[in-house]
From TrEMBL:
This is Alpha/beta hydrolase. The keyword Cell membrane does not apply. Residues 358-377 are annotated as: Disordered. Residues 108-335 form the AB hydrolase-1 domain. Keywords: Hydrolase, Signal. Pfam families: Abhydrolase_1 (PF00561), Abhydrolase_4 (PF08386). PANTHER family: 2-SUCCINYL-6-HYDROXY-2,4-CYCLOHEXADIENE-1-CARBOXYLATE SYNTHASE (PTHR43248), TRIPEPTIDYL AMINOPEPTIDASE (PTHR43248:SF29). Residues 1-35 form the signal peptide. Residues 426-528 form the Peptidase S33 tripeptidyl aminopeptidase-like C-terminal domain. One of its GO terms (molecular function) is hydrolase activity. The keyword Hydrolase applies.
Length: 534
């Protein structure tokens, strides 16, 4: 699964997905027990309180406070070790009724950094809430996982290239090499990463905040985390919102097809917008523009062009860049200019910024070396978070959450059929997403708890927001997940574009805030109209 982050996060931090992100495989499984009364004594974790202080980072807003909670490494054996989780909050300015906890997606997105730089979207909620986010286990400052050089050395194996498709056995061997690198660089947290344990951490955070119920706003992957929490702790659910709803049941191979189709639909929307402008570098006809994109991708795959950073830009790098840009309609003008610079001047810099999320330019992708101990469970400094942490955590969490493990023989036998399905879903993004079928090869079986147990919930009403033009989480996942969760799930149909609705639609924003602040749920099936400004 590619990273599924909110548009705010995509603009700043969603780096190294696509070919690089798909090169990651971790090791180990999460603890899958779901009831506190079946576990050893966790009182010392549930009795803690957070000590809030000013955030130490120089660019952190003055009104942002930072803290931490401590959780067991292994909930079944809490004496085995502990982890510190980084938290941040904006304090309530009005009559406080508790906290609302945010997760911005990924998986692998660090919540503290996102809240620091994207907190303006949530200031209305501070009328009644402390607005809180956190770095989940294995993410950001919270014992960050890393694959070291393995991620970058083996990225080509997962890039959907013709070589990979002709010789999958070699690609699978490279995936195993990457898995070894992940295990070597990630420390003891890796076997205990995943949404089942992150949900249990979320309940410890709820108690440490002093809240009897969890009020929660999750985006993209954050909807998976919220749904798992509701299944594990139904009596602790307060006002819960899921925006950009993830699937709970589809295997990763099917998610890849859905993602390719969603990206193709988003590209068509962008092309229809672009060709209306004389400045569009792809022409003034949508069909011709689509063919020009395909030609450009093929050309760069056959003959990559040098970049400003002594590397090369391939067609698959271009596909990765376009896929990132399509997560938000706000990026369309920048994408248009980046394509113009590439087509008309051979300038790769603007496309590279999309391809890497502004974090690591093509041709200069070595991760930051780890300088701290990996096994003590304490928070690391921001400058010590490995550059590959987001994709490393993304793959470790997704594989921990998925129980399917096709054999090398099954993968090789089905690759041709799957390639046809992916390329039918998208002639541009299909091959790029096909590597998804390889990404968990060699790992132990992930948990089956999410697929089998997160259903038919007995909770207060939950608000699920689905966006019709979402390139990452198709609208049908919203309705399917709502049906699976049961009658407490209320669907808001956002007839707009982009990944998630809260930041892009005034209507969605107001509806979500009304629920979180006042408990006002719209009738299920209510809609927000398109806010297309042309």
């Amino acid at each position: 699964m590619l990273a599924k982050l909110s548009p705010r996060h995509m603009a700043r931090r969603c780096a190294l997905t696509g070919a690089v992100g798909l090169a990651l495989v971790g090791a180990g499984l999460p603890t899958t027990a779901s009831a506190r009364d079946a576990e050893p004594d966790l009182t010392r974790f549930y009795d803690q309180r957070i000590r809030w202080t000013a955030c130490k980072e120089a660019d952190a807003p003055e009104d942002l406070q930072c803290g931490k909670v401590t959780v067991p490494l292994d909930y079944a054996r809490p004496g085995k070790g502990t982890l510190d989780l980084a938290l941040a909050r904006y304090r309530a300015t009005g009559d406080k009724r508790g906290s609302v906890v945010l997760n911005f997606g990924g998986p692998g997105g660090p919540g503290v950094v996102e809240l620091a730089h994207g907190g303006d979207d949530f200031m209305d909620l501070t009328d009644n809430y402390d607005v809180v986010s956190f770095d989940p286990r294995g993410v950001g400052r919270s014992s960050p996982v890393s694959c070291g050089d393995g991620l970058f050395q083996n990225a080509a194996a997962m890039g959907g290239t013709d070589e990979t498709l002709r010789d999958p056995q070699t690609a699978l061997r490279q995936v195993r090499t990457a898995a070894d690198a992940c295990a070597e660089n990630s420390g003891p947290v890796l076997p205990y990463i995943g949404t089942v344990n992150a949900s249990r951490d979320l309940d410890v955070i709820r108690e440490a905040l002093g809240d009897k119920k969890l009020n929660y706003l999750g985006f993209s992957y954050g909807t998976r985390l919220g749904a798992v929490y509701a299944a594990q702790f139904p009596d602790k659910v307060g006002r819960l919102v899921l925006d950009g709803v993830d699937t709970l049941t589809e295997p990763l191979s099917e998610q890849g097809v859905a993602g390719a189709a969603g990206q193709q639909a988003a590209l068509e929307d962008f092309l229809r917008w672009c060709v209306r402008h004389a400045s569009c570098p792809l022409g003034q006809d949508t069909r011709a523009a689509r063919e020009e994109v395909q030609r450009l991708v093929r050309s760069l795959d056959e003959a990559p062009v040098p970049t400003a950073f002594s590397g090369e830009l391939t067609g698959q790098d271009l596909v990765a860049a376009i896929s990132q840009a399509l997560y938000s309609k706000d990026h369309w003008p920048t994408l248009e200019r980046a394509l113009a610079a590439l087509v008309e001047e051979g300038d790769t810099r603007h496309i590279e910024a999309f391809a890497t999320g502004g974090m690591a330019p093509a041709g200069h992708r070595e991760p930051r070396p780890r300088t701290t101990r990996t096994g003590d469970g304490t928070l690391v400094d921001y400058e010590e978070v490995p550059l590959d942490n987001l994709p490393a955590a993304l793959m470790a969490i997704n594989c921990a959450d998925d129980p399917d493990r096709p054999t090398a023989e099954q993968i090789t036998r089905n690759l041709g059929r799957l390639r046809a399905a992916y390329e039918e879903a998208s002639p541009i993004f299909g091959r790029h997403r096909l590597a998804q079928v390889l990404m968990c090869y060699g790992r132990p079986k992930g948990t089956d708890y999410i697929r089998d147990e997160v259903k038919d919930l007995d909770t207060p009403g939950m608000l699920l927001v689905g966006t019709r033009g979402d390139p990452a989480t198709p609208y049908r996942w919203t309705t399917q997940t709502a049906k699976r969760l049961g009658p407490s799930a209320v669907v808001l149909d956002n007839k707009g574009e982009g990944h998630t609705g809260y930041a892009a639609s005034t209507c969605v924003h107001r509806t979500v805030d009304a629920f979180l602040l006042y408990g006002t749920l719209p009738p299920s099936g209510s809609s927000c109209g398109s806010e297309d400004d042309g």
